[in-house]
Design goal:
- With 264 residues, the chain is mostly helical.
- The protein has one domain.
- Helix 3 packs antiparallel against helix 10.
- The mean pLDDT is 85.
Length: 264
């Protein structure tokens, strides 16, 4: 991996991680076009650059993290279902990740759902995610389990889950951002431990690539979050639904036309 590839991947991560469009689907296209090989460092890079996007949430919403202890408890409660299921299904998830076809199909199915979400949940009553109950937080966490299927999108799963609990689109999206923190930090930590446990180490060049990737991801994610909230508030999810459908169909066309696609 060179610096240009690292920057491109970080831009894609920053743009897609918090949007309901599946960052995995975009990584399939990008990694295949660039011809990247699934080395131990490359796989680690794609997870650890999420730390930069986590910091973007802290930078934009830092005041929210000083309101109450219950805010943190709700995030923990919401993170429990996917954390437990992720550990139990770890091997199965790795197998799913090797199937670009599954990713493409889930992109299309998720896109179809997003076309109708605004009509299904059009009577929200909760405008601030801090006002949800622990039960509602847990239910949103259950929806997050769907994101264990590659191509579903963690953001899409949690936002739809939050909207079923009467949150406005804006409040649902923001809670999804907050919930990303424990999930992405945990995933990065686990991946890092596994990397070292398997006897791998960083070269000075790889450390620089990680720093560049996180910085770029941080800046791009801030722009993406602000743009997403603005677009979501004014226009809803339909545009994202069509985008997912088009991307999923594009991946399927590439697969069935004989192109080899790699999921890193």
């Amino acid at each position: 991996m060179n610096y240009l590839q690292a920057i491109i991947l970080a831009i894609i991560e920053g743009l897609t991680e918090f949007l309901p469009v599946s960052s995995t689907g975009h990584m399939i296209i990008a990694s295949s076009i660039m011809g990247l090989q699934p080395t131990a460092f490359t796989k680690l890079f794609l997870i650890v650059i999420q730390l930069g996007t986590i910091l973007s949430v802290l930078a934009l919403y830092y005041k929210r993290f000083f309101r109450s202890v219950s805010f943190y408890i709700k995030l923990i409660v919401a993170a429990i279902p996917a954390s437990i299921l992720g550990v139990l299904l770890n091997d199965q998830i790795d197998q799913w990740l090797e199937s670009p076809t599954m990713v493409a199909v889930m992109l299309v199915l998720g896109g179809i759902i997003l076309l109708f979400v605004d009509k299904w949940f059009n009577k929200p009553v909760i405008e601030d995610s801090d006002n949800i109950s622990y039960k509602q937080a847990f239910i949103i966490g259950v929806y997050q389990c769907l994101a264990l299927i590659p191509g579903t999108s963690r953001s899409a799963s949690t936002i739809v889950g939050a909207m079923t609990q009467k949150l406005t689109r804006k409040a649902a999206a923001e809670f999804s951002f907050f919930l990303a923190l424990p999930m992405m930090f945990g995933a990065s930590l686990i991946k890092m431990l596994k990397f070292f446990k398997e006897g791998n180490t960083f070269t000075p060049e790889e450390i620089k690539l990680l720093v560049v990737g996180n910085v770029v991801g941080f800046v791009v994610a801030i722009i993406a979050i602000k743009g997403f909230i603005s677009l979501l508030t004014r226009h809803g999810f339909k545009a994202f639904g069509w985008y997912r459908i088009i991307l999923g169909l594009a991946i399927l066309i590439l697969i069935f036309s004989g192109h080899e696609l790699n999921i890193l």
